[in-house]
Amino acid sequence: MLTTITPQTNRILIADDDPIIRHLVATVVKQLGYIPVTVGDGREACHLMKVDADFKAAILDMSMPYLEGIELIRYMRTEKRLKRIPVMLITAEPDIRLLSDSFSAGATVFLHKPFTPEQLQAALRMLLGTRSSTRRAA
């Protein structure tokens, strides 16, 4: 029997090297009715997006092995298939300049760690209710 694959436009890519954060974000994504697709570093996220651009949104950690979140956002904004995907950048870095740098790179929402599940839910709602031309901080 031949099975056809239908697009999963309700999938959200989650890239973070911390398994606890990945699990927390995936749990909140599921609670909001979306399908989390998780990877452990920027290179995995980049490879996945090269072969599959069908994501409703992406949630990227700033500091990941091989390819940092902001570099991944810059790459996404140069690819026609990936430009439409709104991106949340999360970080524990204390440097306030990251906020403006992330928006300049093309992030839609910025969330600072540590965050509560409620803060993440609010940031996700902002992310999913916006387009790449609208920038917000959570």
Descriptive key words:
6 strands, alpha/beta, disordered C terminus, disordered N terminus, 19% strand, 138 residues, globular, single chain, Rossmann fold, 6-stranded parallel beta sheet
Helix-strand blueprint:
Blueprint (H helix, E strand, L loop, with lengths): L10 E5 L3 H13 L3 E5 L2 H10 L5 E5 L7 H10 L8 E5 L5 H9 L3 E4 L4 H12 L7 E2 L1
Protein model, in words:
The protein has a 6-stranded parallel beta sheet, sandwiched between helices. With 138 residues, the chain is α/β, with parallel strands linked by helices. Helix content is 39%, strand content 19%. It has a single domain (11-130), classed as Response regulator (Rossmann fold). The chain is globular, with a radius of gyration of 14 Å. Helix 1 (19-31) packs across helix 5. The chain starts with 10 loop residues before the first strand and ends with a strand. It has 5 helices and 6 strands; from the N terminus they run E-H-E-H-E-H-E-H-E-H-E.
Short synopsis of the structure:
The chain has helices spanning 19-31, 42-51, 69-78, 97-105, 117-128; strands at residues 11-15, 35-39, 57-61, 87-91, 109-112, 136-137. The protein is α/β, with parallel strands linked by helices and 138 residues long.
